Amino acid sequence: MERLDVDVVIVGAGPAGLAAAIRLKQRNPNLDILVLEKGRSVGNHVLSGAVINPQALDVLLPKWRDEYESVTPVSEERLYYTTRKRAWSLPHFPGASQKGGVVISLSQLTRYLAQQAEQLGVSILSGYVGDRVLLDQARVVGIQTGAKGVDEQGGADDPGVMIHAKHTMVAEGARGLLSRWLIDHYQLANQPQTYGLGVKEVWQVDPEVFQPGLVIHALGWPVPSDAYGGGFIYHGLDHRVMVGMIVGLDAPNPTMNPFSYLQAFKHHPKWRHYFLNGKPVAYGARVINEGGYQSIPKCEFPGGVLIGCAGGFVNIAKIKGVHAAIYSGIEAAEAYLKKESFDENFKQHPVVLDLYRCRNVRPWFQYGRFIGIMGSGMDQFLFRGLIPYTLTHQPDHLSIKQKGFKVEPVHQPDGKISFDLLTLLQYSNTHHREGQVPHITLKKPDIAVDINQEIYTYFCPANVYEIPEGMNHLQINSSNCIHCKACTIRDPAQNIKWVHPEGGGGPNYTET
Predict the structure, then answer these.
(1) What gap in Å lies between CA 116 and CA 494, rounded to an integer?
(2) Where in this chain does the record put each 4Fe-4S ferredoxin-type domain (predicted)?
(3) How far apart, in whole angstroms, are the C-alpha atoms of residue 215 and residue 319?
(4) CB 434: neighbour CB atoms within 10 A?
(5) pTM of the predicted model as reported, rounded to 2 decimal places
(6) How confident is the model at residue 501 (pLDDT cuts 50, 70, 90)?
(7) What backbone phi and psi angles, to 5 degrees, belong to 241?
(8) Which class for 83: exposed (0-12), middle (13-18), buried (19 or more C-beta within 10 A)?
(9) Which domain does 376 fall in, by range?
């Protein structure tokens, strides 16, 4: 197996990993830095809303506004509480306004950041998975990449690379396999991380209804009252509109279906006109950290650090995480160069202080929408997030009912505004090499149908799990997988084993 020796290896070419690489090279051009990206190219596995706070980009690349034109400043923002036919305006939480933000495609932005990093001399190795951590006694000394072209006998066209590094930064996003292993191995967790599943489409819409910079968020229908979640609509560039749905994976009904909610959401009379004469051009899904301040682990481990969503810095109350990821990459780079503690430095950063003030917003919704709105409203408007207690979390799968639930109806698509899952899945451009060992398996196949069929066949946004008509077994279509990771979180039996498929496989996003 080939061996490479570098100063710093970074796993994940998302906003955090690329920000860290750029700042390291800005401060010390002589450093040898390698970024691993499991997607076929940078941006292929990146998905977000996204309205971002651009301040972190201003710090990292002061001239980015002159060089990168694919942004739309927020021109108007609206927040609604929705029923099936009505939408009532709501006030934003203090500090949660989108004013000053920009609407972007995060997939496209990471490509720009990769270009900036490469111009500084950073090496980016795309299509290679960070498969396991290399250890020297108790210290992390690098990463081994996954093999490629493995046949049934276990032989491989490319056995992978052992990348030895003086420092390892793990920036693989929410629910990454390496970060989970590191958190468990070094006992870094404080409280369990909790997650939502974000399902997103990009539409080309009629110019007559397009409003550049319009940002809409909605809480309520079609998400059930016992679940946390809502929809968003962002008007970006070139008559492109991003529409999506985020639903907490602690929703108690096992037949919770975010994809179905999104299809219904587009039909709401308040905004269905945006989509009437349009067409979808992109589709994807990804889990999002929702645990907030109390779920941030200790990020430093011997020989490296967790950054970005691997560290859990998403502020779900503000629906913001990209700027926090970039800031974490910047601060992790600075801490490494100065031989200081990232954990100690970053906990004083404004993005973490914001997380502290919003720490109780998401946990209130474990008691249902009504109590969630009342409790979080009191916490934010009356006490400004400074009330002297912190609500706790439990793993999402423990909230799921095993009995006594009502099967939720699935939205029936009209083929104009709403579509069936397999139709939209084509817009994710998902591809896995044929013949490779399936990357999704069941630890106990015999319990899948008897206990968990609702979980498996409803929540997945890629039709990976299905029970064929007239059959009594669960079929796993792993070639459909878009790597959202929701199945490893939502399964109440924790019966799913998800490992990395061959590098370069999965979705190939370009506009998400």
Answers:
(1) 41
(2) 472-501
(3) 12
(4) 6
(5) 0.97
(6) very high
(7) -125, 130
(8) exposed
(9) 361-394
